[in-house]
Amino acid sequence: MTRCGRRDVTCGVFPRVGRVVSGGVQHGGMVRRAVGGPGVRGARRPEVRLPVLERFEGGGLEPDGDYDGLEFREADLSGQDGGGARFMDCALRGCALDGTRLSRARVLDSSWAGVRGVGTDLAEATWRDVELTDARLGGTQLHGAVLERVLVRGGKIDFLNLRGARLKDVVFEGCVLVEPDFGGARLERVEFVDCAVKGVEFSGAVLKDVDLRGAASLEIAGGVDRLSGAVISTAQLLDLAPVLAGELGIRVEG
């Protein structure tokens, strides 16, 4: 079942330079910082206010489908093809997304909560004003995607592929990210708040106003040389020092 929209919006492998681990615990508690701060502009969070939704009763997703004001509750969308579809003012709650094809989809003013799946294909998708909460995802493909005013809160996402993506005003909060790949991506006003970031890859990425200070733990697998547009804490700097020295060709002895 599809509904016409009320409005529309125009829409590898990298060399490793070392593994750096940083903890974000000071004075016996987790670091919690205000949004932004001196020298860094804070991300603008989405404000998703959904209208009264109709229950989705369709048999499945359709390529280039138009979904407006619908609630997908506990739906098994595994293996379905919604490539190029538009989701406006929609909620996905507890849905299965194993192998679901949503490449080039547009997800606008929507909320995804408790979704789960492996190998979800969102390559070159557009996410604007979206909240993703308590997701359990693995191998999600978001390479070449555009994310603007997106909040990822809670849950765990393994092997998130954001290579070549563009992220602006994106917040990762209270979640676990295992080996996320931002290789060649552009990040502007992106925050990591009270989340564990394990084996992150920044090779070839461009960072601007990226705030890593609030990460509860931070492990950088590659691309430490791309952090010039990021802000880190003093503790994180100390952890990064050996790798930074190696990048600059500085010998540390004694």
Sheet with the most strands, sense and barrel status: 17 strands, mixed
Question: What is the CATH architecture assignment of the domain at 173-253?
Answer: 3 Solenoid
Would you tell me the structural class of the helices and strands?
mainly beta
Q: Uncertain regions: pLDDT < 50 for 5+ in a row?
A: 1-21, 23-37
Count of DSSP-assigned helices: 1
Task: Tell me the β content.
Answer: 35-45%
Total strands: 19
The outline comes out as elongated
What is the alpha-carbon Rg in Å? 19 Å
User: Which CATH class of the domain at 173-253 is shown?
Assistant: Mainly Beta
Q: What is the overall pLDDT average?
A: 86
Secondary-structure element pattern, one letter each: EEEEEEEEEEEEEEEEEEEH
Our measurement of the CA-to-CA distance between the termini, rounded to an integer number of angstroms, reads: 70 Å
Look up the CATH topology of the domain at 173-253: Pectate Lyase C-like
- Helical content (DSSP H or I, runs of 4+): under 10%
Show the helix and strand layout.
Blueprint (H helix, E strand, L loop, with lengths): L19 E4 L1 E2 L2 E2 L23 E2 L10 E3 L1 E4 L12 E3 L2 E3 L12 E8 L2 E3 L7 E13 L7 E13 L7 E8 L2 E3 L7 E8 L2 E6 L4 E6 L5 E6 L7 E2 L2 H15 L6
Parallel strand pairs: 4-6, 5-7, 6-8, 7-9, 8-9, 9-11, 10-11, 11-12, 12-13, 12-14, 13-15, 14-16, 15-17, 16-18, 17-19
Antiparallel strand pairs: 1-18, 2-3
Pfam family, one: Pentapeptide_4
Protein name: Pentapeptide repeat-containing protein
